[in-house]
Write a structure and sequence with these properties.
This protein is an alpha/beta fold. It has two domains: about 5-170 and about 260-275, 3-Layer(aba) Sandwich (Rossmann fold); about 180-250. It is about 45% helix and about 10% strand. The chain contains 14 helices and six strands. It has helices at about 10-20, 30-50, 65-70, 95-105, 115-125, 170-175, 180-190, 205-215, 215-225, 235-240, 245, 250-255, 275-285, 290-295; strands at about 5, 50-55, 110, 130-135, 150-155, 165. A six-stranded mixed beta sheet has the order 3-2-1-4-5-6. A hairpin with an 8-residue loop joins strand 5 and strand 6 (about 165). The protein is elongated. The protein starts with a strand and ends with a helix.
């Protein structure tokens, strides 16, 4: 029974920037992110026909345990006062409304204190039977891809119509690395969007070379110290000088797979006896065809 995991933050950001900000409710509340998210969800359900679905949320977009490992983790995304995540003013008020809509439909919505949505999805990926499809625009989640159980990423960088279905073969062809070593590759390369520098001086090509020859950061360090011939003198020097960062970076980059998740029914929701709450939200926020498309996708 297939399970679809929605990286909700990734989806509503894509929806916000992909839909015109002229979409507003009668009271002037912006609803472009809401409508885009609902439209994407409806299309994904229609295309993939999952039996189960979870909208996954950040319980904490900057978990304390990751910040303790590396204080600059996502510091580039902080508000000017250093307190919260900077996000567009017109997106913030839409999120509670979207969650109300998802609740009215009966979709499972799951987040966990001190964990990111990535961690929630990773835990589902190791605890739930496959096949599993993770919907995101975030490359970080490529590290979860595996053949057994069948876990693949529906990668939305090019939009839904041209999305990539990422498995280990796709990763191998795209990055010229073994398909199960994306996490190691990302550890050395870094990720500017998360404020992760990677190992100083090592870019994508160097990270790929390391991932082709080593399975872990410890193996790469040992190889550098032993002066393995496939590592240039310059690359060996960078790996050795990066040992302090590599001592914690693999845990920082890896998704947690031990998140305490609630025991809830993950099945696609059945049609409620009354559609009044959904219709009320549809009318109040001018969600029109977006609600209708989701109802149709669910075969209600």
């Amino acid at each position: 029974m297939s399970l679809m995991l929605l990286d909700s933050g990734s989806l509503w950001y894509r929806a916000y920037y992909g839909m015109p900000d002229t979409l507003v409710a009668p009271d002037g509340t912006p609803v472009n992110a809401i409508r885009g998210y609902l439209d994407m969800t409806a299309r994904l359900i229609s295309m993939y026909r999952p039996k189960r679905l979870v909208a996954c949320l950040d319980g904490d977009w900057r978990p304390t345990w990751r910040v303790e490992l590396y204080p600059d983790y996502k510091a580039n995304r902080l508000e000017e006062d250093g307190e919260g995540e900077a996000e567009p003013d017109l997106l913030t008020p839409q999120i509670p409304i979207l969650l109300d809509v998802l609740d009215a439909f009966g979709f499972p919505v799951v987040g966990a204190d001190d964990y990111e949505a990535d961690d929630v999805m990773a835990t589902y990926a190791v605890t739930e039977p496959g096949p599993i499809r993770i919907v995101t625009g975030d490359r970080d989640l490529f590290q979860l891809v595996k053949p057994e159980p069948d876990v693949q990423v529906i990668y939305l960088a090019k939009g839904i119509s041209n999305h990539d279905l990422v498995n280990q073969d796709w990763i191998s062809k795209k990055y010229d690395i073994p398909g199960d070593r994306y996490g190691l590759f990302a550890t050395f390369r870094g990720d500017a969007s998360d404020g992760l520098p990677g190992v100083k001086g090592i870019g994508e090509k160097g990270a790929a070379l390391i991932a082709r020859h080593y399975a872990t950061a410890e193996d790469a360090i040992a190889g550098a110290i032993a002066e393995h011939e496939h590592l240039s003198a310059g690359l060996r020097k960078k790996i050795i000088e990066g040992q302090d960062y590599l001592a914690f970076a693999p845990k920082l980059v890896a998704c947690a797979t031990d998140v305490p998740l609630p025991r809830i029914d993950l099945q696609l929701p059945k049609k409620p006896k009354s559609m009044d709450e959904i219709k009320e939200l549809q009318d109040k926020y001018a969600l029109g065809a977006s609600i209708d498309r989701l109802i149709s996708a669910l075969n209600w």
